[in-house]
């Protein structure tokens, strides 16, 4: 049989999962520009948005908006993570970015999220299940079914976020050494995790191990790689900024602030 050249799964160089950082940087720069021209707009818009999302509308309106992006933009602009021309992802992610920024200091919204955490969780589970069942091909394809699946996906996005925030507000408000440690560690973990997954999975290729054992090795190996990388990076001054850490550790900066003049 003629030899077939394997199709590459990736084309380098590329930013892979770090597209998220690029998009977040663009949104942040745009927001800084707006706030420079209109410094009070964030507080004003935040109060208006908090009123609009009072009561059940907290779960309903964002669901409708994200579902609309999925229905209208996704068919014409499939996800590329290429920054330019990626209009569905920009609408989707910028919406979440702005909602979070504008509502972060609105205490009434946080109480509302906490109250509706169980509703959000159950609705998110229902929407995700519906989307997966359609994607699994258990039903005859139709335009109505595609519309339903797209709507379920858009709703699930917001409902899952609301559920996570609601339960966090209820159970994880206290500070702790673990929370402070992970607050700094999470971004280096994010940077490293995909590379660790790919390298470990590649080494396990054709190993003959059972799927469950391979999965356990990949998960454990990725977790250990993330922890080890962070422990090394946070101790090397010139590496810290490259992994999103402060140039000076927070504890050192705090000690310097409290030293007498």
Describe this structure in words.
The chain contains 10 helices and no strands. 69% of the residues lie in helices and 0% in strands. Helix 6 packs antiparallel against helix 7 (143-171). The protein has 261 residues and is an all-alpha fold.
Give the topology, please.
Blueprint (H helix, E strand, L loop, with lengths): L18 H19 L3 H12 L4 H16 L14 H17 L3 H9 L1 H19 L7 H29 L5 H28 L6 H23 L16 H8 L4
Helix pairs in contact: 2-4, 3-7, 5-7, 6-7, 8-9
Quick tags:
261 residues, mainly alpha, 2 domains
Q: Which regions contain 5 or more consecutive residues with pLDDT less than 50?
A: none
What would the principal axes of the Cα set say about the shape?
Answer: globular
Largest sheet: none
Q: Compute the CA-based radius of gyration.
A: 22 Å
Fraction in beta strands: under 5%
Structural category is mainly alpha
Q: What is the terminal-to-terminal distance?
A: 80 Å
Question: How many discrete domains?
Answer: 2
